[in-house]
Specification:
Blueprint: E1 7-12, H1 19-32, E2 36-42, H2 54-64, E3 69-73, H3 78-84, E4 92-96, H4 97-101, H5 109-115, E5 117-122, H6 128-136, E6 144-148, H7 156-164, H8 175-183
Parallel strand pairs: 1-2, 1-4, 2-3, 4-5, 5-6
Length: 192
């Protein structure tokens, strides 16, 4: 699927944003031919607990994705966000393979696929049978496209622990976001 004028939507907690997030966005632009991407910082994600305020995570995302449109997503559920933004109908909502495998547990997954298409980042070695099992259970499987993503072994949870311990995270967190984290001493023990 190539859509040079197409809109991509990339949501997450971004607590903190890291090189894996940046790599996914770059691969989606390249592989799906997206002309525009809106990065959506989940204010209160339904799928995970976050201690870092939405305002801080919004600033970190702005620093991590310079030149991109960054918005705060006030909706805990993706389908509610999409219903509130009719102008995004038929955009490509970007997710990773692990998130795709959780799609059946989302609120109204078939409605999500009616409103947007999904661009799913897969990495070498991810079991295709897991993806196919989800795909076959969807009413609109034709609205799902897969694109390749080189593995980037980094996770926000691991980075928070390393930051709290004062360990080096250079190269794992985009430089702009890391400057904010260091200047404000974010993710230090007892500080969120």
């Amino acid at each position: 699927m190539r859509d040079a004028e197409g809109l991509g939507l990339f949501g997450g907690a971004f607590d903190p944003p890291h090189r894996g997030h940046v790599a996914l966005l770059a691969a989606a632009r390249r592989e799906l031919g997206l002309g525009r991407v809106v990065v959506l910082v989940a204010a209160g994600p339904a799928h995970k607990h976050v201690d870092t305020s939405a305002d801080v995570r919004l600033r970190l995302a702005q620093a991590a994705f310079p030149g991109e449109e960054i918005e705060l997503d006030p909706y805990p559920r993706t389908v509610d966000l999409l219903r509130a933004h009719a102008e995004w109908t038929d955009a490509i909502f970007l997710i990773g393979a692990d998130q795709f495998c959780d799609l059946p547990g989302w609120k109204e997954p078939d409605e999500v696929l009616r409103l947007v298409r999904l661009g799913v980042a897969t990495r070498p070695g991810f079991p295709r049978e897991r993806l196919d099992a989800v795909l076959h259970g969807l009413e609109r499987a034709d609205r799902v496209s897969f694109f390749a993503l080189e593995p980037t072994p980094v996770a926000s949870r691991e980075l928070r622990a390393r930051l709290e311990a004062g360990a080096d995270v250079d190269g794992d967190i985009p430089a702009g976001a890391l400057r904010i984290i260091r200047a404000e001493r974010l993710y230090r023990a007892g500080r969120r």
